[in-house]
């Protein structure tokens, strides 16, 4: 049983040090040439549990994890070359985030992301099982594997399959999706990877960006 994903906004938290006051600039509004530029808004710190956990992990990572906070355990889902997965994995290895990538889940066992994971000792789980991926696991087997690996957060980094209801229920407010556009623009069926960037360029849009969203069941 599968369910479509409904998303709620979540800030993308980074662990870079705060620049000197003289280097600070007002945030530029990201939009499109055909749309009026809204006034700048003041953003409040998110109270979302996942955002708080990521912020704490980022702070601990910036200090080399010396505060004694437990490192979060991440499972990254990919379907392609895995550029986001590589960046996440490198950040974890380099101590930029207080987390470890403990699994890569993919529907394409021969994709670049899976090959990079194998080459770096990251376990690869194939999901779902299909004619093109007969070695894939069932939803129950996937859940059991993630539990055995003690996964805290799931990161959807270019994963092109729908997420089963059971997975969303097992990881409430702990599944984050990375999309290479400012949703709802250039989102939906067929918009992924380089196709998004090509569509942005073809549209004549002057500005674009990426969005990190928290995934939940529709209506929840």
Features:
about 220 residues, disordered N terminus, alpha/beta, Rossmann fold, about 25% helix, 6 helices
Task: Report on the architecture of this protein.
The protein has six helices and seven strands, in the order βαβαβαβαβαβαβ. With 220 residues, the chain is an alpha/beta fold. Among the domains are: 106 residues, Rossmann fold, CATH 3.40.50.170; 36 residues, no CATH class. The chain has a seven-stranded mixed sheet. Strand 3, helix 3 and strand 4 form a beta-alpha-beta unit. It is globular, with a radius of gyration of 18 Å. The relative contact order is 0.19. The N terminus is likely disordered.
Q: What does the main sheet amount to?
A: 7 strands, mixed
CATH level-3 fold name of the domain at 70-175: Rossmann fold
Percent of residues in β-strands: 15-25%
Please tell me what the overall shape is: globular
What is the number of beta strands? Answer: 7
Distance between the termini: 17 Å
Q: Give the assembly state of these chains.
A: single chain
Strand/helix succession: EHEHEHEHEHEHE
What is Rg? 18 Å
How confident is the prediction overall: mean pLDDT?
A: 73
CATH architecture of the domain at 70-175: 3-Layer(aba) Sandwich
CATH superfamily of the domain at 70-175: Formyl transferase, N-terminal domain
InterPro entries: Formyl_transf_N (IPR002376), Formyl_transf_N_sf (IPR036477)
GO biological process, one term: 'de novo' IMP biosynthetic process
GO molecular function: phosphoribosylglycinamide formyltransferase activity
Domain Formyl transferase N-terminal: 72-210
